[in-house]
């Protein structure tokens, strides 16, 4: 049969007030030789175009910066922080 390919996932969640954003970065077994997949399960009031821009930036960062996953998650958090600047303190968790 065909070989089964393992992968790892990095989840980032951001919970401002009553809204949530969950971003998933899937790392294939051959990462960084194969690209990571990045998706956001919830938009939380951000325009589709802006969200797409953020996800493409994370994907490009992972491809071009030696696969620095933690730095990619920090970049995502900075984008969200800028978007919701001035709102109440929020919780971010990485698991």
From TrEMBL:
Segments forming domain E3 ubiquitin-protein ligase listerin ubiquitin conjugating: 24-83
GO CC aspect terms: cytosol; RQC complex
Highest taxon in the source lineage: Eukaryota
Keywords: Metal-binding, Transferase, Ubl conjugation pathway, Zinc, Zinc-finger
InterPro entries from the UniProt entry: LTN1/Rkr1, LTN1_UBC
E.C. numbers: 2.3.2.27
Coiled coil: none
Record's catalysed reaction(s): S-ubiquitinyl-[E2 ubiquitin-conjugating enzyme]-L-cysteine + [acceptor protein]-L-lysine = [E2 ubiquitin-conjugating enzyme]-L-cysteine + N(6)-ubiquitinyl-[acceptor protein]-L-lysine
Keyword Transferase: yes
Zinc is among the record's keywords: yes
Enzyme class, spelled out: transferase
Family: Belongs to the LTN1 family.
Name of protein: E3 ubiquitin-protein ligase listerin
Native organism: Cymbomonas tetramitiformis
